[in-house]
Amino acid sequence: MDAMQILNVAEHKLAALSFNPSESNIPLVFIHGITSSPAFWVHGQNELIKGLRWYALSLPGHYPAAFPNRFTASELTAPLIADLCEEALKQLIGDQPAIVIGHSTGGFAALMIATRYPQRVKAVVSISGFAHGRWIGALGLFQRLARMGPIGQGLFRLGMKLTTSSRSIYRAALRSYAYNTQALYRDPALEPTLDAIYPMSQQLHLDSMLAYFQQMPHIDITESLTAITMPTLIIVGDHDPIVPPEQSRLIHQQIKGSVLHMLKNTGHVPMSESSAEYNQVLTAWLKTQL
User: Are 57 and 29 a contacting pair, CB within 8 Å?
Assistant: First the structure.
């Protein structure tokens, strides 16, 4: 693994980690979810991926990535996210097409890149992703607070600060993402992943996160998905408490030839809650694309 690389893209800063850059396979690019970081993907990858050339790319505005000074929430749009990620891909891998894999908001970003830059995407994987950015559960509450004016925004900031105030609180908060919490906390990759992402979560810029939570409920790329013609895998838990599983069914309906795999008794973190089945499905599908 290379050190975290900072990519300058149109006054934005994005971040990326590179793995096995000398391998000659079609590169895999992983994009994390809201409030996370590229370090989310470092631990727990399956044996196939560990031996391949792959990258972990940040969402815009997520530490150590950063929005420009004076960036406003209204500037955060689906095309902007796709444009920034595509330019970052160009810096990482040139013009070579990639298999783009995203979790949650990263899944949304992967789909948006595929609709806007089809020549850049060999195949796409949406894990707990969505077309319409209106969330439920704990993150849905944060979205409502972010759109409630100064008082709600103050509560949003307080909640974000509280969640990252200690590693133990941050770890406990993961419960709100899962359905099978026992499997989540038994996952051997969880603790090293927490060690990697928690320090970065403490550095998140609250104004940047506020922009995401304000804007995502207004973003809907459903109609654009019919333009996706490359192979698409959709993995989702049937009891996702953050993104309704119906979103994955909708994505499947919109993308002709896509493959939908619904994991039973699983929430928003299928790579931990149903790790064996998740890795089996992802590995088998990737082998058909590489």
Answer: yes
Reported as a single tens digit per residue, the pLDDT across 17-61 is 999 999 999 999 999 999 999 999 999 999 999 999 999 999 999
- What is the secondary structure of 56-117 as a DSSP string? EEPPTTSTTSBPPTT--GGG--HHHHHHHHHHHHHHHHTT--EEEEEETHHHHHHHHHHHH-
The CATH number assigned to the domain holding 131 equals 3.40.50.1820
- Of 35, 264, 30, 263, residue with least CA distance to 138: 35
Which pLDDT score is estimated for 3? 81
Q: List the domain range (segments joined by +) for residue 57.
A: 5-289
φ, ψ of residue 72 to 5 degrees: the values are -115, 155
Per residue in 208-246, pLDDT (tens digit) is 999 999 999 999 999 999 999 999 999 999 999 999 999
| CA distance to 31, 72, 129, per residue, from 245 (Å) | 20, 31, 9
Cβ-based burial of 84 (10 A; exposed 0-12, middle 13-18, buried ≥19): buried
Q: Give the pLDDT confidence score for residue 2 in this predicted structure.
A: 65
**Which pLDDT tens digit goes with each residue over 142-181?**
999 999 999 999 999 999 999 999 999 999 999 999 999 9
C-alpha gyration radius of the chain:
17
